[in-house]
Amino acid sequence: xxxxxxxxxxxxxxxxxxxxxxxYLTLCADKLVVFYEDAVRDYETxxxxxxxxxxxxISQERLDCLRRHPLDRHKRRTKANLARFYCEEGRAMVESxxxxxxxxxxxxxxxxxxxxxxxxx
Length: 121
Description:
mainly alpha
């Protein structure tokens, strides 16, 4: 279990993440939801999706550069067990924030949070 300082930090950050996500879903007219996990799995597809949403021309030359320099070389090779760092109150707050954001995504008929968000805690 984490220290008292990390527990306080995780509580504050969970609330901040939840509030930011809910504000975005509620206040923004045009929305594009991009999950980190999807970008890691298929960076090129997600990048093209983002560029189309932003109405930015897609350069074949830049996509070719992306293929030559994949992001996975910067990725961790092992997966950390994040649950061990949270105090019970912090874990409950993070789980609650994840559920609230997932429900809001569903209400706005957008993508659901990736299953990794639920499996890590």
